[in-house]
């Protein structure tokens, strides 16, 4: 069996090399090495901050019983804080039980009240705190698919104001724009744009780690890269990811190239007849897709990415 697998893998990598998508110089993403620590707020540009952390073996301060973590440091979804003279606009809000820390962390830079909450997508590590903000009477604005995903999963705190493809918010002389540019991580992914600062929040469309395709939430690997291509048409020079350090526009372009490379590898793999049942373990996935040269072999999202590999294979097998 080992000989058969080795031969099959050799054939796949020969095919990848022949099509020009084997090792590529400068392709690898050097992800941030996180250290344990509390929640913190970092400046992005004047009037714009990002709340990160806490940094621990799980996205919560402690791991659930029986789940010691994967040896990496994790953090719940990054929050953007836009300061205006009339109050604050937040993008995402982490877990419900982290809200007190979120608000206390924000108060270290401003005492202004929160006026609006915007959501990038429906996942709990980004928006479970919605329920608290709704109870405070704060409006939550999101793409209509985000609200539908809240209702579908019976999660509390669904947004109460929705838009179709584009929304705008104006507060204290500051304009904020929201774009749904297509499917990717989910079917509701939203880019929040601060045009006066040339800054965006990307949600989990781009993160400091392997991409995650939530097929149950309407995600798609093929549409994912198209959506990132559309992000690059926006006039920005700094981007807040769903998780991790700030990105430049060039770093977003590099992320796109990695994703395109991985998609082509999986497409060639599926079209070659490589058995899907040989993509069961993380080690198999890492070896077959060559994730190490992309820098995605040991990131905070690698194990989650592996969970959707079967449907990823099916999507690329059915691709033209």
Give an account of the 3D structure.
With 320 residues, the chain is an alpha/beta fold. The protein has one domain: Metallo-beta-lactamase, Chain A (4-Layer Sandwich), CATH 3.60.15. It is 32% helix and 18% strand. The protein is built from ten helices and twelve strands. It has helices at residues 2-18, 99-106, 124-127, 130-135, 144-152, 221-231, 249-271, 282-289, 302-307, 309-318, and strands at residues 40-45, 48-52, 79-84, 87-91, 114-118, 139-143, 161-163, 166-171, 174-179, 191-194, 199-201, 238-240. The strands form two sheets. The chain has a seven-stranded mixed β-sheet with strand order 1-2-3-4-5-6-7. Strands 8-9-10-11-12 form a five-stranded mixed β-sheet, with no helix packed on it. Strand 4 (87-91), helix 2 and strand 5 (114-118) form a beta-alpha-beta unit. Helix 6 (221-231) runs antiparallel to helix 7. The protein is globular and about 60 Å long. Residues 1-23 have low confidence and may be disordered.
Q: What is the number of E strands? A: 12
* Percent range for β-strand residues: 15-25%
Overall 3D shape: globular
Distance between the termini: 32 Å
Number of helices: 10
CATH class: Alpha Beta
At the fold tier of CATH, the topology name is: Metallo-beta-lactamase, Chain A
State the strand order across the main sheet. 1-2-3-4-5-6-7
The Cα radius of gyration reads: 20 Å
Query: Which residues form runs of ≥5 with pLDDT under 50?
Result: 1-23
């Amino acid at each position: 069996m080992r000989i058969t697998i080795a031969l099959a893998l050799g054939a796949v990598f020969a095919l990848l090399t022949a099509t020009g998508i084997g090792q590529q110089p400068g392709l690898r993403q050097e992800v941030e090495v996180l250290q344990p620590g509390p929640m913190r707020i970092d400046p992005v540009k004047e009037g714009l901050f990002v709340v990160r952390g806490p940094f621990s073996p799980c996205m919560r301060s402690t791991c659930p019983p029986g789940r010691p973590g994967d040896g990496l440091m994790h953090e719940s979804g990054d929050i953007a804080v836009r300061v205006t003279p009339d109050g604050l606009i937040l993008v995402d809000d982490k877990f419900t039980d982290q809200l007190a820390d979120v608000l206390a962390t924000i108060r270290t830079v401003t005492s202004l009240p929160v006026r609006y909450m915007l959501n990038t997508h429906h996942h709990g590590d980004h928006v479970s705190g919605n329920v608290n903000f709704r109870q405070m009477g704060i409006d939550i604005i999101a793409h209509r698919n985000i609200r539908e995903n809240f209702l579908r999963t019976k999660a509390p705190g669904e947004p109460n104001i929705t838009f179709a493809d584009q929304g705008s918010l104006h507060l204290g002389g500051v304009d904020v724009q929201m774009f749904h540019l297509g499917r990717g991580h989910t079917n509701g992914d939203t880019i929040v744009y601060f045009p006066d600062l040339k800054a965006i929040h990307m949600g989990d469309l781009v993160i400091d780690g392997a991409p995650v395709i939530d097929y149950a939430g309407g995600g798609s690997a093929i549409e994912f890269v198209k959506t990132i291509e559309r992000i690059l048409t926006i006039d920005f020079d700094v981007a807040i990811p769903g998780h991790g350090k700030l990105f430049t526009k060039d770093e977003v372009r590099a992320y796109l190239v990695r994703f395109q490379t991985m998609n082509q590898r999986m497409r060639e793999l599926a079209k070659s007849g490589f058995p899907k049942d040989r993509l069961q373990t993380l080690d198999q996935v890492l070896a077959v897709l060559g994730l190490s040269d992309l820098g995605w072999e040991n990131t905070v999202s690698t194990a989650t990415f592996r969970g959707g590999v079967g449907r990823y294979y099916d999507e690329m097998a059915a691709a033209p």
